[in-house]
From TrEMBL:
This is N-acetylmuramoyl-L-alanine amidase AmiA. The gene is amiC. It is found in: Periplasm. The lineage of its organism: Bacteria, Pseudomonadati, Pseudomonadota, Alphaproteobacteria, Hyphomicrobiales. The keyword Signal applies. Residues 242-398 form the MurNAc-LAA domain. Keywords: Cell wall biogenesis/degradation, Hydrolase, Periplasm, Signal. It catalyses: Hydrolyzes the link between N-acetylmuramoyl residues and L-amino acid residues in certain cell-wall glycopeptides. It is an enzyme of class 3 (hydrolase).
Length: 422
């Protein structure tokens, strides 16, 4: 599937991206501008469009956000739009949240309520608009109203007169393929850009390009079946990424990212491999895990009803065994990667990444490098570097499954699945 990168969402200049097909783009509503007016007591968000659309808005708390769900929109907004707001609305972000649906998330300075949300027809030389008016409130009221107007289930919106080739939610096929399943998880996507380089390249585009190259490399051997958590510019919630691995009884889960550090924390460089642990291996690993674990909040997901961890002795034992396999693969991966790429001074780390928490699937998170480092960024957008790095990861996968102990991952998956169904 082509990599879809929608206009108005900054993307890597040197990373291969494919715009939406003309026949699809032609039927999407186009957003040409977005802005905020107001102060700390009340604010108005205005979205300019080429046609009138219907949308749904709602409040989320912890942290306080306004979420605006739209049909899939082609965002052609001025560069820098949303990075700063005004008064009650500190900033906002936008993007596709799933095929057929876009989302705008406004970060609020404090508790608030939605006073009005309405669509306007084009009139008197002004474009069609969607407007959301918010007013300051108190915490108790905001939480009560958030409960009373619970976030609706997100569904794709069919655009009127849409081409039959317009994107639709992917349908998973039932397969009888007995080869080990490798799940590749390009981080971020859609409304969540991830980190950004000073020159404008977004993490979500960099890691997707790498994952596509890695998938091609792995599939060439014919030994494995590769599943991707996303293969276009779509947001996928952290829990759903884990579910992809578990639903496919994956033998290995590889999450792919490209970090950034603020200048005050130094100019770190090189690739790092993370595994799951309850306690972070160092302060940098802890900071990164905290940042990555906020992806759902960035995309406007309600975090107040998070499922609790399953308390089961057999599952706990399975998780310990799975972590041992994860560590073994991480060490194998480091040996292969250091032959072709610059590694971080401490290349093996661990922290509490939510995306690595499938208790029955060996999982690692690869930070390919730092987009905040000029040398790393040069590599990250280089097709030749990407091919070499993808080759090293593919070699590590072969080595991992070539070990007799590595073949026992199917036993881990089977025993854990049985435990979960008890």
């Amino acid at each position: 599937m082509a990599v879809a990168v929608y206009a108005g969402v900054p993307s890597a200049q040197a990373v291969e991206t494919v715009p939406p097909r003309p026949e699809v783009a032609a039927v999407l509503p186009v957003a040409s501008d977005a802005r905020v007016a107001g102060d700390e007591r009340a604010a108005r968000f205005i979205l300019d469009l080429d046609r009138k659309i219907e949308a749904r808005s709602f409040i989320l708390t912890d942290p306080y956000r306004v979420v605006l769900d739209l049909p899939q929109v082609a965002f052609r907004l001025p560069e820098g739009t949303g990075k700063s707001g005004r008064g009650l609305v500190r900033a906002f972000r936008y993007g596709m949240v799933m095929p057929g649906a876009s989302r705008i998330v406004m970060d609020l300075a404090g508790p608030a309520r939605i006073e009005k949300a309405y669509a306007l027809d084009a009139a008197n030389g002004q474009p069609a608009r969607f407007v959301v008016e918010v007013a300051a409130s108190d915490a108790a009221t905001a939480k009560r109203e958030a409960r009373e107007n619970a976030a609706p289930a997100l569904r794709p919106t069919i655009v009127a007169n849409a081409s039959p080739d317009a994107p639709i939610p992917p349908q998973e096929d039932k397969v009888t393929d007995s080869r080990p399943v490798i799940v590749l998880d390009p981080g971020h996507g859609g409304i969540d850009n991830g980190t950004a380089a000073a020159s404008g390249e977004n993490e979500k585009d960099i890691v997707l390009s790498f994952a596509m190259a890695l998938r091609e490399r792995i599939e060439k051997s014919g030994k494995y079946r590769v599943v991707m958590t996303r293969d276009d510019d779509t947001f996928v919630a952290l829990a759903d990424r884990v579910k992809v691995a578990r639903n496919h009884t994956a033998a290995l889960f590889v999450s792919i990212h490209a970090d950034a550090l603020p200048k005050r924390e130094g100019d770190a460089q090189g690739a790092t491999i993370y595994t799951l642990s309850d306690r972070a291996s160092d302060a940098e690993a802890e900071r990164l895990a905290e940042s990555e674990n906020k992806a759902d909040a960035i995309a406007g997901i309600d975090l107040t009803e998070e499922p609790t961890e399953v308390a089961d002795i057999l599952i706990d034992l399975t998780q310990r065994e799975t972590r041992a396999f994860s560590t073994r693969f991480a060490k194998t991966l480091m040996r292969e990667m250091k032959a072709v790429a610059r590694m971080h001074k401490h290349p093996l780390k661990s922290a509490g990444f939510r995306v690595l928490k499938a208790h029955d699937v060996p999982s690692v998170l690869i930070e390919l490098g730092y987009v905040s480092n000029r040398g790393d960024l040069h590599n990250l957008v280089s097709a030749s570097w990407r091919e070499k790095m993808a080759g090293s990861v593919a070699s590590a996968i072969d080595a991992f499954f070539g070990e007799s102990r590595g073949k026992d991952t199917t036993r881990i998956n089977a025993s854990a699945s049985a435990a979960a169904k008890r």
